[in-house]
Design a protein that fits this description.
This protein is of the alpha/beta class. The protein has a single domain (22-311), classed as Rossmann fold. The protein has 10 helices and 10 strands. Helix 4 (107-113) packs across helix 5, helix 5 (115-124) packs across helix 6 and helix 6 runs antiparallel to helix 8. Residues 1-6 have low confidence and may be disordered. It binds thiamine diphosphate (TPP) and iron/sulfur cluster (SF4). Iron/sulfur cluster is lined by residues 30-31, 34, 36, 65, 135, 139-140, 214-217.
Length: 312
């Protein structure tokens, strides 16, 4: 028996996306019109279409409005501290490679305070999906300038306008070593769902820069404008397996975003590189049974919600 089958049923079956809606907090408290709703919807749809049982999935989040994602998704969840979703997600995946691990957080969480973890998780190509809610501000703490705020962006922390260039999340991801890099937008739920499905299925570190509008603190952001899907457009051509081609397309998309043109789609995909745990396995530097197995005993498992219900 594997560690996974000690958690879930392990049976293949049709999954309805409503199975991912929790009974305790089914209605998110995000502001009306927030792009975070789009991530939740796309994620539920993607997981259901991939026939993932909620108990096969672990969602690890950082701190921010985006960090509330796992409160609104009925799967295993770990709401960590600011910028630390990736180390927790990596540890979980290494302890139980059969678990579908998704990490998520904001641009402040992932590209700012957690930037070092982002770089090294990409470099090591851990087999997890990382969704960054990119709304170009710190939403939860009331709209401060973030690593993706454009030069000149005015906020409480930069009332005269930011004097900093924004980071280039796609390029940073590529040069750090991600083996799947994509950008999608909350205004485009079908593309978002398809990209999440590809990211989850991809064997290696999949990074999605997910443009999410924050109507409360960042009305001027460009995430609202109509997007172009580079895979559907005759004006853009990217060879997904070619780093130079991907890099050029990323630079174009990163520049265009702040000029009001939203270019989304898949930018890079390396299907030949081994994920970190596979690389370790090949070197004989990984236990033959999942580490998690050592801490599991048959039949002892109860979901945390059952405990909460009991004490309600
Ligand atoms: C170590 C630490 N520093 C600062 C904070 C305060 N804080 C909470 S959320 C947040 C930023 C949130 O912005 P972002 O990550 O972009 O997520 P969003 O709320 O926009 O989804 C900050 C600075 C904290 N919780 N912990
Ligand atoms: S503050 Fe912005 S990011 Fe946070 S819930 Fe409201 S709209 Fe969404």
């Amino acid at each position: 028996m594997s560690a996974f089958s000690a958690i879930g049923s392990g049976e293949e079956r049709e999954v309805d996306q409503n199975e991912f809606t929790p009974s305790i907090e089914p209605q998110p408290t995000w502001c009306p019109g927030c792009g975070d709703f789009g991530v939740l919807k796309a994620l539920k749809g993607a997981l259901a279409e991939l026939e993932k049982d909620p108990e096969e999935v672990l969602v690890v989040t950082g701190i921010g409005c985006s960090g509330k994602l796992n409160s609104y998704l009925d799967s295993y969840g770990f709401h960590t501290i600011h910028g630390r979703s990736l180390p927790i997600a990596r540890a979980a995946k290494l302890a139980n490679p059969e678990l579908e691990v998704i990490a998520a957080g904001g641009d402040g969480d992932g590209y700012g305070i957690g930037g070092n973890h982002f770089m090294h998780t990409a470099r090591e190509n851990h087999d997890i999906t990382y969704i960054v809610f990119d709304n170009e501000v710190f939403g939860l703490t009331k709209g401060q300038t973030s690593p993706t705020s454009p030069m000149g962006h005015k906020s409480k922390t930069q009332p005269k306008g930011s004097a900093k260039n924004p980071i280039r999340p796609l390029s940073l991801s590529l040069t750090s070593g991600s083996s799947f890099v994509a950008r999608t937008a909350a205004v485009n739920p079908n593309q978002a769902k398809d990209i999440i499905k590809e990211a989850v299925t991809h064997d290696g570190f999949s990074h999605i820069d997910f443009l999410t509008q924050c109507p409360t603190w960042n009305k001027d952001a460009k995430q609202y404008v109509p997007y172009t899907d580079i895979q559907q457009s005759d004006d853009h051509d990217v060879d997904l397996g070619d780093r130079r081609s991907a890099s050029e397309m990323m630079h174009e998309a990163e520049d265009a975003l702040y000029e009001g043109e939203v270019l989304t789609g898949r930018f890079y995909k390396d299907e030949n590189r081994h994920a970190y745990h596979e690389e370790k396995q090949e070197r004989g530097d990984f236990p033959s049974e999942p580490l998690a197995e050592r801490y599991f005993e048959d039949g002892d498992w109860e979901r945390s919600y059952d405990y909460i219900d009991r004490h309600a």
